[in-house]
Design a protein that fits this description.
alpha/beta, Zincin-like, four-stranded mixed β-sheet, 34% helix
Length: 271
Amino acid sequence: MTAAEEGAGSAHQPSGEVPVSRGYEEEAPVFWPKFRVRKSPRARHVRFTMSLRDGLVVVVPRRFDLRRIPGLLQNRRAWLERAAGRVEEERKVHGSEPSVTLPGRISLPGIGEEWTVDYTATDSPRVVAVERAGNRLVLFGDTGKLEACRIALGRWLNRKAHERLEPWLVRLAAERGFAVKRVVVKSQRTRWASCSRRGTISLNVRLLFLSEDLARHVLIHELCHTVHMNHSREFRALLECHDPDCREKGRKLREAWLHLPAWLDSRLGRW
């Protein structure tokens, strides 16, 4: 699956990334506005991210020569223009600043679940999410801290994805004759899912927020990549065999990121 931004990272725990100054903003190509540079000890390659909240961020390895960034931006001009268009679409939906409030209810249509969310302040500096009877989720701890609550909700979503998305993918593979070597769940900012050349399928927790038919479409798409690691005619034919409405679903999926909740820190994840 292609992406509206390059690279991936945890949407809830960007730990280890060290912001640096904007000293190279004036060197950006004339067609592009200011950007921020973030050095990450975990980064092996340069990647670009763009969101309504953060604008354009260039993530680089610690010892990367920052003087190379303007040239890289120029090489990525087509992607930057597409991503800027999508940020503008998001601006029309959410306004100039995305409204981020903690949810009182979480709907996970991908797995057919609806949860009410309560917040209970305690003396603990850490926030944890605990499931209660009747699809009630309770967050305990320093619930006055927005980011701590979002991280706790992110951990809970990862657990739900492991519990529900992984078995679903394995069942689909068995029913349709695919072989899955390994399944992992990530908080990817750039892709709904991906398949490596080693046969590892990575699923984005945000799949939980898609409709069931779109989530199934993504799973089948990745299963087809276990046979064809490209988007060739052979791949398209296999996908259409297993998912006849794949073209229409792909179109809907390209717009689905607009409807992700703001508290999720949604990015431009798409095909």
